[in-house]
Amino acid sequence: MTHRKICSLDGVRSYGNGDEPVELWFNTDVGRMVIVTYNEGGLCATEIDLDDLLQYLQRGSQSPDGGFFDGRTIGGIRSIASGNREGN
Question: In a 10 Å sphere around its CB, with 0-12 CB exposed, 13-18 middle and 19+ buried, how is residue 32 labelled?
Answer without folding.
Answer: middle
